Amino acid sequence: MWTFKQIKTRAKKAVRARYLGTVIASLVLAVALTGAGAVFCCGFRFIATPEVSAAFDRVMLETATESDLLAFFRAMGPVLARILLIGGAVAILLKVLLLNPLALGCRRYFLVNRFSDPADPSSRATLEDLTFGFRGNYKNTVWTLFRADLSIALHGVLLIVPGIVRAYAYRMVPYILAEDPGTPSKDALSRAEEMMRGQKGRTFLLDLSFIGWWLLCCCTLGLAQILFVCPYYEAVRAEQFCVLKEADMDATVATEQWSEKDEGDGTRAEWQENLTWSEEAERKDRERREEALAAGKKAAAPGENPFDDPALDAE
User: Fold this and answer.
1) Distances (CA, A) of 193 to 18, 201, 229, 311
2) Does residue 124 sit in the same domain as residue 134?
């Protein structure tokens, strides 16, 4: 069973190994994760009419009159419809086609950095890894991450809690694709769910353990977030994936060894052989009894049981 201390200690070591690179990767990841929302919010300025924009400014500056408020809300109906349709469509396309693969490349960087050997320069993570989502199996990456996001969104529409649970269930999907972009979409999603089975609660507590760090980010106006917290947090997530992957591989190997042991001990083979023998013996016994019955009807004296055959008893 993994512990918080174990994962965080390894994560800090990974960040120290390539500090500047992890800072850059975390900044790119932050842009990838928030870019779609920023596009959606900024779409208001491009879609709204000048009158609505001016009224909005007065509302924000708390200088609007009652007539301004009425005009603003009266004109917001068509504007909101255009924002939802146009801005939402642009934000979704941007996230699916550009930001998701970019975020996957950042996760790839942290994975490579985790396994890099300081003595071997060729094993070190490079900024080229940030574009891995576009250089790998791009179509599979886009489709798999879109399926994961869609499932999370649909569960979140029903209730907030199911959406959070689904988000934790698919937490390892980007890392699975970052490690092997050729993993089929269905296999990546099912493997992520299997890895997180029984781990969602501990992972939630792991995230809660960063509350102090996020408060520090607020006190430093985001400076601590850029310089340490984000690289540290992403390194922790990458380390958790590696730990869960090792546990999953150990469980798979144990299952295979148990299956081989069963076959080696002959338990399965003997069961199959005994089953075949029982069916064959029953068939032969039924044929002998039918033959004995036919012969007994001809030779047995009245009152004798045709099944009382010494030969059958001997067998």
Assistant:
1) 31, 14, 27, 63
2) yes
Domain span including residue 293: 267-297+306-314
- State both tokens at 191: 């493997």
The count of domains in the chain is: 2
Report the pLDDT value the prediction gives residue 164, as an integer from 0 to 100: 93
Instruction: Give Rg (Cα) of the chain.
Output: 33
Residue pLDDT, tens place only, 170-190: 999 999 999 999 999 999 999
Same domain? 172 vs 274: no
Longest Cα–Cα distance in the chain: 121
Q: Is 212 found in the same domain as 276?
A: no
Residue 130 is given by DSSP the state: G
Residues 293 and 203 in one domain: no
The string of DSSP letters for 265-312 reads HTHHHHHHHHHHHHHHHHHHHHHHHHHHHHHHHHHPPTT--TT--HHH
Same domain (yes/no): 166, 214? yes
Same-domain pairing of 140 and 279: no
Q: What is the pLDDT of residues 100-137, one digit of tens each?
A: 999 999 999 999 998 888 778 888 888 899 999 998 88
DSSP state of 86: I
In this prediction the pTM is 0.70
Give me the phi and psi of 218, to 5 degrees please.
Answer: -65, -40
